[in-house]
């Protein structure tokens, strides 16, 4: 087989391709489970944080995360009805994949598509924290389009299902230095205590369009505008309005409120 | 070539960034803070070492016509493995590095070295060359990142270093350092410094002004 | 303003691959000594980007993405880890074809571009555009708008840069800074200038 010959070239190329594929596949096969395990611990960690089960500067080990996570009641919600559905591992439900899948996803009407996600999963996992039998907090996964990327986070509501317990974003691809305020703890802290719904029960939570005066009634529902990061901020408002609305967790929250009052 | 020189040359004398003009893209973009720069450096050194050795081992059998794509394939495999490794064990940093780890494949240094060195030398010298160039690249990266994080945020590796005004200190962070152009200015300073030390690296592009040559309204 | 036009204009000005993301710098710094070559290379980049980004989108959507291979009965296969090599494969193939076409139909341009056309195979900006397209989850039309915008943006940047470099031949510059050092400073300033556009929302 000549060195420069066509056969040699083909055989060589094939061997290299094969060798590289084996190497890559072996590495991926070995590493995927590690990645998934980390992803799942990370996710539980974020939920524990959002549920208020850890102090602000506490660093939890993986085992502590698992322990505290046990205190949460994880349920899968049917967004249309607001009812819980039985599921084996509600926390592992991949709602993002379901939202992308042609067979499972549910389309969102254009006028309601405030989070600019287009389609959604039929179910979403929610995390309920109960103490002494009473609901203390509920953690709702939320996501939507910012300027460049999908913002993914958790919205926590207090027992009255109206006051914000916290809002955090764990993943985004916004402009570093400008749009990445969504991941900063001091920005996230500003949401605590805001009211999610107005007097008519409509979703009112969001980022204001301009700076708010201290006495302005809108400060009940809105935090101050961000200079220079309008599109990201609009994305945050959009996704909050969506998930608090009728096509998001609205039905669930209504049902829970009725149950509490009865 | 003396093994010691193979390793040490690319650090200053033949630095991939400041002399060979290679590897600049990802260098600039990941230097806002020190940690991604360190991880990126480690990733590039690993891939450089791996591909230089792999290509060197295959060099006698490599058909000339397809050698570039074969080299790219080998480099790509190395990068994929490193990328997956980072995602598994350092997921937070991996997210910061996002597309740039993948772009290591197109990092001109790696293809440049496999093509110009590994194709003509044995595996051991190729390994040293790979590591040496990797270190040269890392040197510039770490220098730029240190300056940018320190001056731009007052921190290093996320830990406060200079007392920042926001926290009651005296240092007002230079926000220019947080923007990409600052990397260019810093590298220009490094290049200038290297070439002041080593006159052999200087270029001469300026056309000396000869009195009377350029009249008003003429070429200019 | 139409969403596609918005994506295109953002890619050219706000999200400029060369001056905002600093991609494709090696070729950028090496091919910018004369305006003529810069223009030729710029055109080549526009062509390559406009074709490869949508093609890579199709490959990602219908072959690599988890669930993409459902038509083969393989619903759970996730081949995303192969995106890097398959994107480069597409880029390399396209550039090879482009080279052959140019050689046949526009030999003057092919001659002028010389080695720089094949060098585009490893241009970070070309691969970067495809990777950003995946990250931002663009559809087919959006990918085309983005690809052409990204190419045009890069081309505009390199031509601007070459023009400035040509003028700098008549300036008094310290020896250690001449050539590469100055090129970095100028690119930094251009990048700052474009950063001023970053507040624009299309």
Topology:
The complex is a heterotrimer of chains A (262), B (220) and C (202).
Chain A: H1 6-50, H2 62-69, E1 72-78, E2 83-85, H3 95-100, E3 106-107, E4 119-120, E5 123-131, E6 134-145, E7 150-158, E8 164-171, H4 185-189, E9 206-207, E10 222-223, H5 230-244, H6 250-261
Parallel strand pairs in A: 9-10
Antiparallel strand pairs in A: 1-2, 1-5, 3-4, 5-6, 6-7, 7-8
Chain B: H1 3-8, H2 24-29, H3 34-58, H4 67-89, H5 91-102, H6 108-116, H7 123-153, E1 155-156, E2 159-160, H8 181-197
Antiparallel strand pairs in B: 1-2
Helix pairs in contact in B: 3-4, 3-5, 3-6, 3-7, 4-5, 4-6, 6-7, 7-8
Chain C: H1 3-14, H2 25-30, H3 35-64, H4 83-105, H5 107-113, H6 116-119, H7 124-135, H8 140-167, H9 180-195
Helix pairs in contact in C: 1-8, 3-4, 3-7, 3-8, 4-5, 4-7, 7-8, 8-9
Describe this structure in words.
The complex is a heterotrimer of chains A (262), B (220) and C (202). With 262 residues, chain A is of the alpha+beta class. Chain A is built from 6 helices and 10 strands, in the order ααββαββββββαββαα. In chain A, strands 2-1-5-6-7-8 form a 6-stranded antiparallel β-sheet. A two-stranded antiparallel sheet of chain A has the order 3-4. Chain A starts with 5 loop residues before the first helix and ends with a helix. With 220 residues, chain B is mostly helical. Chain B has one domain (17-201). Chain B has 8 helices and 2 strands, in the order H-H-H-H-H-H-H-E-E-H. In chain B, strands 1-2 form a two-stranded antiparallel sheet. In chain B, helix 3 (34-58) runs antiparallel to helix 4 and helix 3 (34-58) packs parallel to helix 6 (108-116). The longest helix of chain B is centred in the middle third of the chain and has 31 residues, at 123-153. By secondary structure, chain C is mainly α. Chain C has helices spanning 3-14, 25-30, 35-64, 83-105, 107-113, 116-119, 124-135, 140-167, 180-195. Chain C starts with a helix and ends in a 7-residue tail after the last helix. Chains in contact: A-B, A-C, B-C. At the B-C interface, helix 2, helix 4, helix 5 and helix 8 of B face helix 2, helix 4, helix 7 and helix 9 of C.
